[in-house]
Amino acid sequence: MTKLWTYLKKTSKTIHQLAKEFPEKTYRQLEKYRDADRQEEAQQIFTQQDNQELKEEQVAKEADALMINKIIKYEAKITELQSNLDRIKKENNNLYERIAKLTEKDLQRARESGM
Hints:
By secondary structure, the protein is mainly alpha-helical. It is built from 3 helices and no strands.
């Protein structure tokens, strides 16, 4: 609120300046004019601040959306890699079992042949 008050003090005309500009107006009319002018400026400042906050929120939401998209892509890639790993493990296990069976058959043949 201090920034607002400082800004209004810098940009608003004093009663003395208004009296020079509008000599036909009464002091009360000049006060109303000055106060209305200050309120209008304050509203513009608040509107600008609101717009800035909205822009910042929009940028944050866009950044969040990008991060969510990246996470979804990574999760899909992880799922794909896990699926490939499971498939390879299964193939490896099948090959190991085949080797074990073949080795056992070879041992039995060797025993039968008298080696």
